[in-house]
Amino acid sequence: MILHAATIALSAFLLFLVQPIIARQILPWFGGSAAVWTTCMVFFQVALLAGYFYSDLVIRKLSPRAQAAVHTVLLLASLAFLPITVSEAMKPTDATQPVGRILLLLTVTIGLPYLMLATTGPLVQAWFTRQFRSAQVYRLYALSNLASMLALLGYPPLIEPNASGAMQSVGWSVGYAIFVLLAIAAAWTGVRRGAGADGAAEVAAADAHAEGIAAPPPASAGAAAMQAAHEAAAAPIGLARDPAAPPSIAEQGLWLLLAALGSTLLLAVTTHITQNVASIPFLWVLPLSIYLVTFILCFDGKGWYWRPQYLLLAAIATVAMLGGLSWRPEGFGVERAILHIEHAVPVYAFGLFVLCMFAHGELVARKPAPAHLTRFYLMVSLGGAVGGLLVGIGAPLAFDWYFELPLALTVVAVLVAVLSRGALRIAGAVAALVCATLFADYVHFIRGDVLELSRNFYGTLRVTGSPDGDTSKGASRRLLHGVILHGEQYMAPDQRAVATTYYGPTSGVGRTIEAARGAPMRVGVIGLGVGTLATYGREGDVYRLYELNPVVLDIANARFSYLKDSRAKIEPALGDARLVLEREAPQKFDVLAVDAFSSDSIPVHLLTREALAVYKRHLSERGAVVFHITNRYLDLSGVVRQLADEVGMHAVRFSDEPPQSAVQYRSDWVALTSDAAFAATLRAAGGADLPATRGTRRAWTDDHHNLFEVLK
User: Fold this and answer.
1) Cα–Cα distance between 682 and 686 in angstroms, integer?
2) pLDDT tens-digit profile of 608-624?
3) Phi, psi for 664 (deg, rounded to 5)
4) Taking the CB of residue 249, how many other CB atoms lie within 10 A of it?
5) CA separation (Å) from 131 to 11, 19, 57?
6) Does pLDDT of 480 surpass 70?
7) For the chain, how big is the Rg over CA atoms in Å?
8) CA 103/CA 457 separation, integer angstroms
9) pLDDT reported for residue 331
């Protein structure tokens, strides 16, 4: 029994721990986009489904000895994938087809080990049941879920800040090698005793573990009464009440829908909240932990799902979450905005808990007799995979904005009304009507005065403002990435060349460019936006612009005129800036502006010691790299100062506070240069030495960085 318990606990721990570890490794290769995690989740869910099919097939078709032999061969073969380090040869050379590249990369890096971990729950429970027929398998279920939660909750505060990426990979790989030994031992231990075992017990145990979830223990009298109440409450949709009857097509469709809704809500909420804060494992792990907790509670068999209360809470939560998408912070008479992150995270975290409790609780209320558990858990796991595919792959192709979240919330509200009775049905119907109204209002809010709306792997882009042909005084146009402003231009002929927002003449980048001006100069810009900095270009200058998202370049050329009107030679370079710079010959930049941190989902890999070494290689002898560190939630000044101290560069900070009536915004820039004379020139131009950091924080590296320490 100890062997089986250790095998299941270790496998569950490794299964959930590998998710943030591997996502963290590949995040820099795809621009630090939050969509990397969503795509990883699609892979994990599909791999779990594949593991379920494998387990079901092996247990149904093979003898105990053949099961052990086949599984042993695959376990030993999976050791060839260790250590789980992403190969440098798989770095993308351009920004095309990121979803396919990520799925291929994950398959090559962790495909077979992850599949083996995904099969452990059902297989080991089957072997355990065969060997210890009188024991209750739900103890292993509880242990598995506990280990999963320890991995998810322990990674952000303990592992991620204190262990480098390389250490995490090696540590996980050592743990996996131990798991392989335990799994092989568990497979062969019960072979002799299981030779005449009844296959039905094995099948029931195997079918009881989809996506890391095991079957609940035998129901007590109280639980049985609650189950009967659940079944009676389900009567409005006409499902079969005979527990021994085969599940109807409608009933199976409802299982699939409920499971898919839970998975869809998980990924849609994760996407929503990671658009407003940095893409760090904590915010990836939080929704996933909530999702797992609801599975634990609902499938625990102890009555945690209180049906009337959760039906009412679900109706309220859908309205609150949908309303939060276009929040009016000071009443209905002012411009609307998406709910601020300090309120959004609690609202959507609690809302996700309530709605997943509803979806998973309704699943448990409709679970069939043991003879039909195979189909039940197949539909549950299939629904999870379908939800992941819809959000991770389908939604970016079908929608030009993040409409999957409000759509899913509206579907949940309708489902609450359908599954409820009496006063709860009225409440559900009201919630569905309100959600439909809020959904339509949200679409209008997003589209508003939008001139162009597009979405791809890297996010959503909106161009708002004056229509084509409007060149009147004050007419302007803006580009927003999600809810973050990435540039603005006034359209009147005498205003088109004005550098607006964070890039005015008194900003740090404006002062640095002017201080470096002399002979024709070379300027590099990481993060194109609308191309505002090109307005500083003069005859003979070269402005090389690095942009990850090709759609941004298209919009800058078609909807704005900074690039077309610049007197400098414009050289676009598509792809992740760091990867492109690593491949290029030295560019001899007089100024290299790194403008990738003004949003709240920052690409950390552009702010590490290794990144600075790449930048220095491309600077002229007197050149400076200028970091834009204006940020609502993160104080990056200490990070930049530590990098400067690490390589012996001078750090000069520019804090610009333009008048409220100006077209420029408050901004913070830090210039790093190895030339003492140029640093003095920058100070004379209005800069000041960046104060030394306090404490024992280390400079960020590709292997070590901690966003928790820079939260404001």
Assistant:
1) 7
2) 999 999 999 999 999 99
3) -95, 160
4) 7
5) 20, 32, 20
6) yes
7) 28
8) 13
9) 44
> Cα–Cα–Cα angle for 501, 505, 511, nearest 5°?
120
For 526, the token pair is: 């990481």
Check pLDDT > 90 for residue 81: yes
Lowest mean pLDDT among 12-26, 570-584, 644-658: 12-26
Residue 317: C-alpha distances to residues 283, 404, 432, 558 (Å): 20, 16, 11, 41
- In 3D space, the residue among 566, 581, 674, 567 whose CA is nearest the CA of residue 620 turns out to be 674
- Tokens 């007089």 label which residue? 590
Could you tell me which of 412, 366, 86 has the C-alpha nearest to residue 237? 366
Is residue 236's pLDDT more than 60? Answer: no
567 pLDDT above the threshold of 70: yes
Q: What string of H, E and C letters represents the secondary structure of 83-132?
A: CCCCCHHHCCCCCCCHHHHHHHHHHHHHHHHHHHHHHHHHHHHHHHHHHC
DSSP notation for 439-453: HHHHHHHHHTTEEEE
d(CA 262, CA 211): 12
Sequence-separated (6 or more) residues with CB below 8 Å from residue 87:
108, 109
SS3 state of residue 700: coil
Instruction: Show the tokens assigned to 677.
Output: 């004379």
Distance between CA 418 and CA 438 in Å, rounded?
20
- Quote the CA–CA distance of 60 and 599 in Å, as a whole number: 52
Handedness of CA 486, 40, 374, 2 (dihedral sign): negative
Average pLDDT over residues 467-481: 88
3-class DSSP state for residue 326?
Answer: coil
The rounded mean pLDDT for the chain is: 83
Segment 519-552, tens digit of pLDDT: 899 999 999 999 999 999 999 999 999 998 999 9
Residue 678 confidence class, pLDDT cut points 50, 70, 90 = very high
Contact in structure between 295 and 215 (CB atoms under 8 Å): no
Instruction: Give the orientation angle of helix 508-516 with respect to helix 676-684, to 10 degrees.
Output: 120
Structure tokens at 363: 């699943």
Of 464, 168, 154, 130, nearest in space to 285 by CA: 154
> What CA–CA distances, in Å, run from 245 to 240, 257, 477, 629, 647?
7, 21, 63, 63, 72
Percent of the chain past pLDDT 70, that is, above it, reads 84
pTM of the model: 0.80
pLDDT given for residue 680 in this prediction: 96
Alpha-carbon torsion (676, 677, 683, 687), positive or negative: negative
Q: Tell me which amino acid residue 299 is.
A: F
Q: Are 610 and 581 in contact (CB under 8 A)?
A: no
Structure tokens at 408: 């899913």
Q: Angle 199-207/373-389 helices, nearest 10 degrees?
A: 30
Put residue 482 in one of left, alpha, beta given phi > 0 → left and psi -120 to 50 → alpha.
left
Residue 577 makes CB contacts below 8 A (sequence gap 6+) with: 526, 527, 546, 547, 548, 594, 596, 606
Return d(Cα 547, Cα 105) in angstroms, integer. 23
8-state DSSP, 390? I
> In angstroms, how far apart are the furthest CA atoms of the chain?
89
**Omega cis (within 30) before 83:** yes
